[in-house]
Specification:
Length: 249
């Protein structure tokens, strides 16, 4: 990966560091990626988790290395109650001791979405306010963070590296190369608790107004923003990078 000459020196350094880490550790098993990343001086590391359909896999791996690692959970105010209950139960199962809940800015909610129905007319604006901006605040104290993203999940993730630059920080995707069979096998072997919504066909779980069960033969993320071209909320796209590099943070 050759740094773009238009990047600032600091950004080029982060890009180079991400590329070097990817070359060193990107092909290792996920548990080793986690352990090696935590042994690096990355300016503090956290993990982000939606406590969704297969979140238990990454969280179980993290708990095996460092159960005290900060886990950032974004409470949008629109979650299924089952997801909130699952978060607490799974954290107890795994012995995770530092769950950090971030929420949308109350002033922004009052100003932009006073009725709570913005998702009905502008899903991008809703996601920006309820997800992208608060998540940027959640990861801002850390130099790097783990995600549970996989390449098979969406076309926007197909070429995703294990270590990647997001503004001045590094995002780490230990499960990037895993598929549905790998995830299911790991869940079975370790007897991990499953989000109860999975049993009802919710294979990718987000906010309740914008999430539907997946029909037989459909892609796992087809139940998110059904009927729209939208496939990502923005947390994993450029919106988060813009928020992270904003002087307000």
């Amino acid at each position: 990966m050759v740094p773009n000459p238009r990047l600032l020196d600091g950004d080029a350094a982060v890009l180079g560091r991400a590329a070097a880490l990817n070359a060193l550790y990107g092909g290792l098993p996920p548990q080793e990626i986690i352990a090696r990343a935590l042994a690096e001086d990355l300016g503090g590391v956290a993990a982000v988790s939606s406590f969704g359909a297969d979140s238990a896999v990454l969280l179980h791996m993290i708990a095996g290395v460092d159960p005290g690692l900060p886990i950032v959970f974004l409470d949008t105010g629109k979650h299924f109650g089952e997801t909130l209950d699952y978060r607490d139960a799974l954290a107890a199962d795994l012995g995770l001791t530092d769950i950090r809940v971030v929420t949308p800015d109350e002033a922004a909610l009052s100003r932009i979405d006073p009725t709570g129905k913005l998702h009905e007319t502008d899903t991008d604006a809703c996601c920006n306010m309820r997800k992208v901006e608060p998540m940027a605040r959640g990861v801002a104290p850390f130099g790097a963070w783990f995600t549970g993203r996989k390449r098979f999940q969406a076309s926007t993730r197909a070429e995703m590296p294990v270590f990647e630059m997001v503004g001045p920080r590094i995002r780490i995707n230990p499960l990037a190369g895993w598929g549905t069979a790998d995830l299911a096998d790991y869940m079975r072997r370790h007897g991990l608790r499953e989000n109860p919504l999975v049993a009802y066909g919710y294979l990718s779980i987000g906010c309740f107004p914008c999430t539907q069960p997946v029909k037989a033969g459909e892609d796992a993320r087809s139940g998110r923003w059904s009927g729209q071209a939208k496939t990502e909320c923005g947390i994993h796209l450029t919106g988060l990078e813009r928020s992270l590099t904003d002087s307000a943070l």
